[in-house]
Protein backbone atom coordinates (compact mmCIF):
# COMPACT_ATOMS: atom_id res chain seq x y z
CA UNK A 1 0.00 0.00 0.00
CA UNK A 2 2.82 2.42 0.87
CA UNK A 3 4.42 1.79 -2.54
CA UNK A 4 1.18 2.66 -4.38
CA UNK A 5 0.67 5.78 -2.31
CA UNK A 6 4.25 6.82 -3.11
CA UNK A 7 3.65 6.61 -6.84
CA UNK A 8 0.36 8.46 -6.56
CA UNK A 9 2.21 11.23 -4.77
CA UNK A 10 4.86 11.31 -7.48
CA UNK A 11 2.30 11.63 -10.24
CA UNK A 12 0.58 14.59 -8.61
CA UNK A 13 3.87 16.48 -8.73
CA UNK A 14 3.86 16.64 -12.50
CA UNK A 15 1.03 19.14 -12.75
CA UNK A 16 3.46 21.96 -11.95
CA UNK A 17 7.17 22.46 -12.46
CA UNK A 18 7.67 24.09 -9.06
CA UNK A 19 5.69 23.35 -5.90
CA UNK A 20 6.24 23.14 -2.16
CA UNK A 21 8.58 20.35 -1.12
CA UNK A 22 9.84 19.65 -4.65
CA UNK A 23 13.45 20.23 -5.65
CA UNK A 24 13.73 20.75 -9.39
CA UNK A 25 16.89 20.12 -11.37
CA UNK A 26 16.74 21.22 -15.00
CA UNK A 27 18.95 23.37 -17.20
CA UNK A 28 17.67 26.80 -18.10
CA UNK A 29 17.41 27.72 -21.77
CA UNK A 30 20.80 29.44 -21.59
CA UNK A 31 22.34 26.48 -19.74
CA UNK A 32 20.84 23.81 -21.99
CA UNK A 33 23.49 22.23 -24.19
CA UNK A 34 23.47 18.92 -26.02
CA UNK A 35 26.82 17.57 -27.16
CA UNK A 36 27.62 14.72 -29.51
CA UNK A 37 30.64 13.68 -27.50
CA UNK A 38 31.51 10.50 -29.44
CA UNK A 39 30.83 9.95 -33.13
CA UNK A 40 32.45 6.97 -34.83
CA UNK A 41 31.42 3.75 -36.61
CA UNK A 42 31.85 2.03 -33.23
CA UNK A 43 30.01 4.32 -30.82
CA UNK A 44 27.71 7.35 -30.67
CA UNK A 45 27.29 9.31 -27.42
CA UNK A 46 24.95 12.24 -26.82
CA UNK A 47 25.28 14.12 -23.51
CA UNK A 48 23.29 16.78 -21.66
CA UNK A 49 24.45 18.41 -18.43
CA UNK A 50 21.87 18.97 -15.68
CA UNK A 51 23.30 21.72 -13.43
CA UNK A 52 23.98 20.73 -9.82
CA UNK A 53 22.72 17.20 -10.47
CA UNK A 54 24.62 15.22 -13.10
CA UNK A 55 24.59 14.21 -16.75
CA UNK A 56 22.06 12.58 -19.05
CA UNK A 57 23.75 10.20 -21.51
CA UNK A 58 22.30 8.50 -24.60
CA UNK A 59 24.62 5.94 -26.17
CA UNK A 60 24.53 3.44 -29.01
CA UNK A 61 27.29 0.99 -29.99
CA UNK A 62 28.10 -1.05 -33.07
CA UNK A 63 26.48 -4.48 -33.12
CA UNK A 64 24.27 -6.90 -35.01
CA UNK A 65 21.18 -5.21 -33.58
CA UNK A 66 20.63 -1.50 -33.05
CA UNK A 67 20.85 -0.69 -29.37
CA UNK A 68 20.28 2.47 -27.37
CA UNK A 69 21.23 2.96 -23.74
CA UNK A 70 20.28 5.81 -21.45
CA UNK A 71 21.99 6.55 -18.16
CA UNK A 72 21.23 9.36 -15.74
CA UNK A 73 24.61 9.88 -14.11
CA UNK A 74 24.14 11.37 -10.66
CA UNK A 75 26.61 13.29 -8.55
CA UNK A 76 24.99 11.68 -5.52
CA UNK A 77 24.01 8.02 -5.97
CA UNK A 78 20.87 6.56 -4.35
CA UNK A 79 21.31 5.46 -0.75
CA UNK A 80 18.57 2.85 -1.01
CA UNK A 81 16.27 1.20 -3.51
CA UNK A 82 13.94 3.96 -4.69
CA UNK A 83 10.77 3.90 -6.77
CA UNK A 84 10.71 6.52 -9.52
CA UNK A 85 8.58 7.54 -12.47
CA UNK A 86 9.66 8.97 -15.81
CA UNK A 87 7.18 11.29 -17.51
CA UNK A 88 7.16 13.60 -20.49
CA UNK A 89 6.29 17.08 -19.25
CA UNK A 90 5.70 20.28 -21.16
CA UNK A 91 8.19 23.05 -20.28
CA UNK A 92 6.91 26.06 -18.38
CA UNK A 93 6.62 28.16 -21.56
CA UNK A 94 4.15 25.63 -23.08
CA UNK A 95 1.30 25.57 -20.52
CA UNK A 96 -1.77 23.43 -20.96
CA UNK A 97 -0.11 20.36 -22.50
CA UNK A 98 -0.79 17.29 -20.34
CA UNK A 99 2.09 15.14 -19.09
CA UNK A 100 2.51 11.61 -20.44
CA UNK A 101 3.85 8.51 -18.70
CA UNK A 102 6.98 6.95 -20.18
CA UNK A 103 8.01 4.28 -17.68
CA UNK A 104 8.25 3.44 -14.01
CA UNK A 105 11.59 2.30 -12.71
CA UNK A 106 13.54 1.51 -9.56
CA UNK A 107 16.81 3.15 -8.62
CA UNK A 108 19.31 0.70 -7.17
CA UNK A 109 21.57 1.70 -4.26
CA UNK A 110 24.86 3.30 -5.36
CA UNK A 111 24.04 2.97 -9.08
CA UNK A 112 23.13 5.53 -11.72
CA UNK A 113 19.61 5.38 -13.14
CA UNK A 114 19.12 3.42 -16.37
CA UNK A 115 16.08 2.98 -18.59
CA UNK A 116 15.21 0.39 -21.21
CA UNK A 117 15.95 0.74 -24.92
CA UNK A 118 12.28 1.41 -25.75
CA UNK A 119 11.93 4.08 -23.06
CA UNK A 120 15.18 5.71 -24.23
CA UNK A 121 13.79 6.03 -27.78
CA UNK A 122 10.57 7.50 -26.39
CA UNK A 123 12.62 10.07 -24.47
CA UNK A 124 14.39 11.14 -27.67
CA UNK A 125 11.07 11.37 -29.51
CA UNK A 126 9.59 13.52 -26.77
CA UNK A 127 12.64 15.79 -26.74
CA UNK A 128 12.38 16.16 -30.52
CA UNK A 129 8.82 17.44 -29.99
CA UNK A 130 9.98 20.00 -27.43
CA UNK A 131 8.84 18.04 -24.39
CA UNK A 132 10.84 17.57 -21.22
CA UNK A 133 11.39 13.95 -20.01
CA UNK A 134 11.45 14.21 -16.22
CA UNK A 135 12.29 11.76 -13.43
CA UNK A 136 10.33 11.96 -10.16
CA UNK A 137 11.29 10.29 -6.91
CA UNK A 138 11.39 10.82 -3.15
CA UNK A 139 14.71 12.15 -1.90
CA UNK A 140 16.63 9.40 -0.11
CA UNK A 141 18.36 11.98 2.11
CA UNK A 142 15.32 14.05 3.08
CA UNK A 143 12.05 12.09 3.32
CA UNK A 144 9.90 15.24 3.19
CA UNK A 145 11.30 16.32 -0.18
CA UNK A 146 10.46 15.12 -3.65
CA UNK A 147 12.92 15.47 -6.51
CA UNK A 148 12.20 16.27 -10.16
CA UNK A 149 15.04 15.92 -12.70
CA UNK A 150 14.28 17.17 -16.20
CA UNK A 151 16.00 17.11 -19.59
CA UNK A 152 15.59 20.45 -21.34
CA UNK A 153 14.84 20.23 -25.08
CA UNK A 154 16.35 23.66 -25.78
CA UNK A 155 19.22 23.47 -28.29
CA UNK A 156 18.53 19.77 -28.76
CA UNK A 157 17.78 19.31 -32.45
CA UNK A 158 21.12 19.85 -34.18
CA UNK A 159 23.03 17.46 -31.92
CA UNK A 160 20.15 15.00 -31.99
CA UNK A 161 20.10 14.78 -35.79
CA UNK A 162 23.88 14.29 -35.78
CA UNK A 163 23.39 11.54 -33.20
CA UNK A 164 20.79 9.78 -35.36
CA UNK A 165 23.09 10.05 -38.39
CA UNK A 166 25.92 8.56 -36.34
CA UNK A 167 23.74 5.62 -35.29
CA UNK A 168 22.86 4.99 -38.92
CA UNK A 169 26.60 4.73 -39.71
CA UNK A 170 27.51 2.24 -36.95
CA UNK A 171 29.17 -1.00 -38.01
CA UNK A 172 26.70 -3.92 -38.22
CA UNK A 173 28.84 -5.93 -35.80
CA UNK A 174 30.58 -5.30 -32.49
CA UNK A 175 33.74 -6.49 -30.80
CA UNK A 176 31.93 -9.46 -29.30
CA UNK A 177 31.15 -10.62 -32.86
CA UNK A 178 34.83 -10.78 -33.85
CA UNK A 179 36.52 -11.56 -30.53
CA UNK A 180 36.39 -15.29 -31.29
CA UNK A 181 36.90 -15.98 -35.00
CA UNK A 182 37.62 -19.21 -36.84
CA UNK A 183 39.20 -18.96 -40.30
CA UNK A 184 39.23 -21.91 -42.70
CA UNK A 185 41.45 -22.63 -45.71
CA UNK A 186 40.34 -23.90 -49.09
CA UNK A 187 43.54 -25.90 -49.50
CA UNK A 188 46.85 -26.67 -47.84
CA UNK A 189 48.49 -23.73 -49.60
CA UNK A 190 46.82 -21.32 -47.17
CA UNK A 191 44.11 -19.87 -49.41
CA UNK A 192 41.30 -18.61 -47.18
CA UNK A 193 37.71 -19.46 -48.02
CA UNK A 194 35.53 -16.52 -49.18
CA UNK A 195 33.68 -16.56 -45.85
CA UNK A 196 36.97 -16.45 -43.94
CA UNK A 197 38.21 -13.53 -46.04
CA UNK A 198 35.08 -11.62 -45.08
CA UNK A 199 35.67 -12.40 -41.41
CA UNK A 200 39.24 -11.15 -41.66
CA UNK A 201 38.05 -7.98 -43.42
CA UNK A 202 35.66 -7.29 -40.55
CA UNK A 203 38.50 -7.61 -38.04
CA UNK A 204 40.66 -5.27 -40.10
CA UNK A 205 37.86 -2.70 -40.37
CA UNK A 206 37.10 -2.80 -36.65
CA UNK A 207 40.76 -2.44 -35.67
CA UNK A 208 41.15 0.52 -38.02
CA UNK A 209 38.82 2.42 -35.64
CA UNK A 210 39.94 0.85 -32.37
CA UNK A 211 43.26 -1.04 -32.30
CA UNK A 212 43.31 -1.28 -28.51
CA UNK A 213 43.72 -4.97 -27.72
CA UNK A 214 45.26 -6.45 -24.60
CA UNK A 215 45.93 -9.86 -26.10
CA UNK A 216 45.63 -11.77 -29.37
CA UNK A 217 45.86 -15.57 -29.32
CA UNK A 218 46.38 -17.33 -32.66
CA UNK A 219 46.16 -21.13 -32.94
CA UNK A 220 46.82 -22.73 -36.35
CA UNK A 221 45.89 -26.28 -37.40
CA UNK A 222 46.07 -28.45 -40.53
CA UNK A 223 44.41 -31.62 -41.72
CA UNK A 224 46.31 -34.94 -41.49
CA UNK A 225 47.48 -35.09 -45.10
CA UNK A 226 51.26 -34.99 -45.39
CA UNK A 227 53.86 -35.73 -42.74
CA UNK A 228 54.01 -34.36 -39.21
CA UNK A 229 56.90 -32.02 -39.92
CA UNK A 230 55.29 -30.69 -43.10
CA UNK A 231 51.97 -30.04 -41.34
CA UNK A 232 53.71 -28.31 -38.44
CA UNK A 233 55.55 -26.09 -40.93
CA UNK A 234 52.29 -25.23 -42.72
CA UNK A 235 50.48 -24.31 -39.51
CA UNK A 236 53.49 -22.28 -38.34
CA UNK A 237 53.44 -20.29 -41.58
CA UNK A 238 49.71 -19.66 -41.27
CA UNK A 239 50.11 -18.46 -37.68
CA UNK A 240 52.94 -16.10 -38.68
CA UNK A 241 50.88 -14.69 -41.57
CA UNK A 242 48.07 -13.89 -39.15
CA UNK A 243 50.52 -12.37 -36.68
CA UNK A 244 51.76 -10.06 -39.43
CA UNK A 245 48.15 -9.13 -40.15
CA UNK A 246 47.73 -7.89 -36.58
CA UNK A 247 51.12 -6.16 -36.59
CA UNK A 248 50.06 -4.26 -39.70
CA UNK A 249 46.85 -3.30 -37.85
CA UNK A 250 48.90 -1.60 -35.14
CA UNK A 251 48.94 -4.32 -32.48
CA UNK A 252 52.19 -4.59 -30.54
CA UNK A 253 54.08 -7.87 -31.05
CA UNK A 254 54.28 -8.49 -27.29
CA UNK A 255 50.49 -8.76 -27.23
CA UNK A 256 50.31 -11.44 -29.92
CA UNK A 257 50.79 -15.10 -29.01
CA UNK A 258 50.92 -17.74 -31.75
CA UNK A 259 50.81 -21.53 -31.48
CA UNK A 260 51.23 -24.04 -34.30
CA UNK A 261 49.55 -27.41 -33.75
CA UNK A 262 50.03 -29.07 -37.12
CA UNK A 263 47.64 -31.98 -37.60
CA UNK A 264 46.85 -32.32 -33.88
CA UNK A 265 43.48 -31.61 -32.27
CA UNK A 266 41.16 -32.42 -35.15
CA UNK A 267 37.57 -31.30 -34.81
CA UNK A 268 36.28 -33.47 -37.68
CA UNK A 269 37.20 -36.64 -39.53
CA UNK A 270 40.03 -36.51 -42.08
CA UNK A 271 38.43 -39.23 -44.20
CA UNK A 272 36.20 -36.76 -46.07
CA UNK A 273 36.85 -33.51 -47.94
CA UNK A 274 34.41 -31.59 -45.75
CA UNK A 275 36.03 -32.90 -42.59
CA UNK A 276 39.51 -31.95 -43.77
CA UNK A 277 38.22 -28.49 -44.68
CA UNK A 278 37.05 -28.00 -41.08
CA UNK A 279 40.40 -29.13 -39.70
CA UNK A 280 42.36 -26.64 -41.84
CA UNK A 281 41.76 -23.65 -39.60
CA UNK A 282 43.13 -20.80 -37.54
CA UNK A 283 41.39 -19.82 -34.31
CA UNK A 284 41.73 -16.16 -33.30
CA UNK A 285 40.85 -14.97 -29.80
CA UNK A 286 41.07 -11.30 -28.92
CA UNK A 287 40.82 -9.68 -25.49
CA UNK A 288 40.46 -6.02 -24.52
TrEMBL record:
Question: Where's the OmpA-like domain?
Answer: 173-288
Q: Does the keyword Cytoplasm apply?
A: no
Which residues lie in Polar residues bias regions?
268-277
Question: Which keywords label this protein?
Answer: Membrane
Can you quote a single GO CC term?
membrane
Where composition is biased (Basic residues), the residues are: 278-288
> Region Disordered: which residues?
260-288
Query: How is this protein named in the record?
Result: OmpA family protein
Taxonomically, what lineage is the organism? Bacteria, Pseudomonadati, Pseudomonadota, Gammaproteobacteria, Alteromonadales
Species of provenance: Ferrimonas aestuarii
Keyword Metal-binding listed? The answer is no
Amino acid sequence: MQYKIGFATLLTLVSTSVSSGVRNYVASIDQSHWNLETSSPLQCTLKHTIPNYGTAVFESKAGRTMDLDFVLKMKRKPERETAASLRSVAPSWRPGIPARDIVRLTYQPQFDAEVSKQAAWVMLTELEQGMQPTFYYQDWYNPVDQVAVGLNAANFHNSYFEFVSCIDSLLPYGFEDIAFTVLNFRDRNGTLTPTSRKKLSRIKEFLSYDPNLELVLIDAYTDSFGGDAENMSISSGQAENLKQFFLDAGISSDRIVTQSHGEKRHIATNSSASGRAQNRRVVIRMER
